[in-house]
Design goal:
It contains 13 helices and 16 strands. The chain is α/β, with parallel strands linked by helices. It folds into 2 domains: 203 residues, Rossmann fold (3-Layer(aba) Sandwich); 192 residues, 2-Layer Sandwich (Nucleotidyltransferase, domain 5). A 9-stranded mixed β-sheet has the order 3-4-5-2-6-7-1-9-8. A 7-stranded mixed β-sheet has the order 10-16-13-12-11-14-15. Strand 3 and strand 4 form a beta hairpin. Helix 2 crosses helix 3 and helix 11 crosses helix 13. It is globular, with a radius of gyration of 26 Å. The termini are far apart. The chain binds adenosine-5'-triphosphate (ATP) and magnesium ion.
């Protein structure tokens, strides 16, 4: 047997990731699992083919340094004669194959790759990207010549602007290590219909999978153990329900508590007493989803979100493009059919932007022609956000001033994924799927509550005099 010089050998989960046949695969979870390493090495798979082209993305050029260091470490040793061309951030191989490294700080940066084609496209830290940035590259994923394999790979940790869509696309859409089938249909030039399947898969990453790191730096696990709880769960255990930067950290969706309605915001639907008032919130959207929420208010002013209508075409953050008449008809249909809404007087509050007039009058006026009358909502963003915080807070009995019927699936999916904006660290980043949150803000601003009393912290067992960290 000739002697083999092993430069890099995949560990168990890396091997599974590298052997998956699906078009899209996401290796995600804990920090230090060995995710970036495998992405950089996977790019080498086809460098013997002269026309092969691969590209690896990180969010910014600065962050790209980490991938380039890995390429430096492995590429020349793996393929003697491989050369790095710094001006183009590109590795060229003796066969003629090329691997590019790129940042995509702003969505417009994707245009740089218009007209290019790549056999292998990889995103490191996918949760830092918007879905539009990721999906644009689908159009660049085609063979650069005969015989190449064409596929997309990505890695990432929980948290970040893309947390919501990455979680939805790869984590909640199916089970780990089980292909998620996406049926694609289209019509050809002759008008013949076609259907095919595109598959994707989620490969979970755990720190314990990276034996090489734990052997070299056994103390790294301790670093992660010392993080605050949210970050620790995300980065040590790869927990997708927990991440830093989350806005509504008080949100609880605990099925064990649905029926007793305590310490959970999500509950089983129930019949609303006829005298409770009903409100409805509306956020305008056409190419992005529109969002409606119906709320019942009890005698104490507690609100229940009892129904949602979300205008999405099923693609990530894409709207159904309905005109006002169609939207109004759907709203009125729901209100006629839902036993909790039928025959009720409904107070409607909308995105104030729909009151702006253009040549056809305002959108609000178009709704009036369809027998739906809105009043403009208060769009004070921070005050609205605080109202939601106040209402989500549990009192000492475990009750909260806002609870949501479990049938409001899109609200339940999108609210906990919202993250803070980098521009305004107090506010929600508006580039996310925040439409159901927006309609909720308009409604809550119409029925404001005062901040709940600050609960006295419990006495810690190791601090029986309750002196706190600084003494009395
Ligand atoms: N198969 C392997 N053989 C040897 N070392 C490896 C292997 N896989 C990963 N490592 C090493 O483990 C360390 C962590 O790996 P890597 O940077 O890929 O982790 P990561 O999952 O991307 O981490 P993060 O979540 O922080 O981005 C690196 O030093 C890397 O070189
Ligand atoms: Mg990494």
């Amino acid at each position: 047997m000739p002697e083999v010089n092993v430069i890099w050998k995949p560990q168990k989960m890396q091997r599974i990731f590298m052997s998956r046949p699906e078009w899209e695969a996401f290796y995600g979870g804990a920090a230090g699992g060995g995710k970036s390493d495998v992405l950089v090495v996977e790019a080498l798979r086809q460098v013997h083919i002269p026309w092969y082209k691969g590209i690896l993305f990180r969010k910014t050029y600065r962050q790209l340094g980490e991938l380039l260091d890995k390429a430096d470490r492995y590429y020349q040793k793996a393929v003697p004669g491989a050369r790095y061309h710094a001006q183009q951030n590109m590795w060229a191989f003796p066969s003629g194959a090329k691997i590019y490294f790129a940042g995509m700080q702003y969505t417009r940066d994707r245009e740089k790759w218009q007209g290019w084609q790549f056999d292998y496209i990889a995103f490191d830290e996918l949760t830092h990207f918007l879905f539009d940035e990721y999906s644009y590259l689908f159009s660049r994923n085609r063979p650069s010549g005969p015989g190449t394999r064409v596929y997309i790979r990505a890695t990432g940790n929980p948290g970040g602007i893309g947390h919501g869509w990455v979680k939805q696309r790869f984590i909640t859409a199916g089970l780990p290590l089980t292909p998620i089938r996406h049926i694609v249909s289209w019509t050809d030039e002759e008008g013949r219909p076609h259907r095919d399947v595109r598959s994707r898969i989620f490969v979970p990453a755990k720190l314990s999978d990276n034996k090489a790191l734990l052997k070299n730096a056994p103390e790294y696990r301790m670093n992660l153990c010392m993080l605050p709880e949210k970050e620790r769960k995300a980065l040590l255990d790869g927990d997708w329900d927990s991440f830093s930067g989350q806005v509504f950290t008080e949100w609880r969706n605990d099925p064990d508590h649905y029926t007793d309605r305590l310490y959970t915001h999500v509950i089983e639907p129930f019949h609303i007493p006829p005298h409770w008032r009903i409100l409805m919130g509306y956020d305008w959207g056409y190419s992005r989803p529109f969002a409606c929420g119906w709320y019942a208010v009890d005698e104490r002013g507690k609100m229940y979100m009892i129904r949602e209508l979300y205008g999405t075409n099923g693609e990530q953050d894409a709207g159904v493009q309905w005109d006002v008449a169609r939207t109004a008809a759907e709203i009125l249909r729901i209100e006629a059919e839902d036993g909790n809404l039928r025959g009720k007087k409904i107070e409607r509050i909308a995105d104030p932007a729909i009151f702006q007039r253009n040549s056809e009058g305002s959108i609000a006026q178009q709704f009036e022609r369809c027998h739906i009358w809105f009043i403009p909502g208060d769009n004070a963003r921070l005050a609205g956000k605080m109202q939601l915080h106040y209402r989500l807070k549990f009192d000492e009995e475990g009750d909260a001033m806002l609870q949501v019927f479990k049938t409001c699936r899109n609200f339940i999916r999108t609210l906990p994924s919202l993250v803070y904006s980098a521009m305004d660290p107090e506010d929600v980043d508006t580039r996310q799927e925040d439409h159901l949150y927006d309609q909720c803000r308009y409604v809550l601003m119409k029925r404001r509550v005062t901040p709940p009393p600050v609960q006295k912290p419990r006495i810690r067992l190791d601090d029986p005099l309750n002196l706190g960290p600084y003494g009395r």
